[in-house]
Design brief:
Layout: E1 3-9, E2 24-33, E3 39-44, E4 50-55, E5 62-63, H1 72-75, E6 93-97, H2 105-112, E7 119-120, E8 123-125, E9 141-149, E10 156-165
Parallel strand pairs: 5-7, 6-8
Antiparallel strand pairs: 1-9, 2-6, 2-10, 3-4, 3-9
């Protein structure tokens, strides 16, 4: 089953909805994982609209500093022995999804990972889906991040996440 975590947003006028790609300024995840190709990440609005941030792809690019063979980054191989899964949280990097970014995780990973140990830089990335998927979504209410890991031979950790809205949506 996918992992889900929520945050409840309040303080906006009742009936305030997402109507522009810039209404959400950032969706930031503090996380690590040993293979970006294994995971799907979705933002779910209080009213049920869904925005896929990442849907597999990008090779075995790592996020943050996951717990792996201590020499993985030194040797450039990411070889931690496929017989035993890493366990325990590593060090998170902050990855933000917003409409001003230039590429998705998949695009960045595919362009840079070549069967060596490549680490996704912290920073801004595009979601897979277009923000118009969220048009009409209520701003107030419970927002959910859903992460699904389709591989059992590794792990990852979400240490926290935030969602930021355009301040112009706040009541006057």
């Amino acid at each position: 089953a996918p992992f889900q975590t929520t945050v409840t947003i309040s303080g906006f006028d009742p009936g305030t909805t997402i109507s522009s790609a810039t209404d959400i300024t950032n969706i930031c995840l503090d996380m690590e994982h040993s293979a970006v190709d294994d995971i799907t990440i979705t933002l779910i609005a209080p009213s049920g609209e869904r925005l896929v941030l990442h849907n597999r792809g990008g090779g075995a690019t790592v996020l943050g500093n996951p717990v792996m063979d201590a020499n993985a980054f030194q040797s450039g191989t990411c070889d931690w022995g496929y017989g035993s899964a890493p366990s325990g949280p590593g060090d998170a990097f902050t990855y933000c999804f917003n409409s001003g970014a230039s590429e998705t995780w998949k695009d960045h990973g595919d362009a840079n990972w070549n069967f060596n140990c490549y680490q996704m830089p912290a920073g801004d990335y595009l979601p897979v889906d277009n923000y118009n998927n969220l048009f009409g979504a209520d701003v107030n209410g419970t927002w959910t991040i859903e992460i699904e890991d389709v591989s059992g031979n590794d792990d990852g950790y979400l240490m926290g996440w935030t969602i930021s809205f355009d301040p112009s949506l706040l009541p006057a």
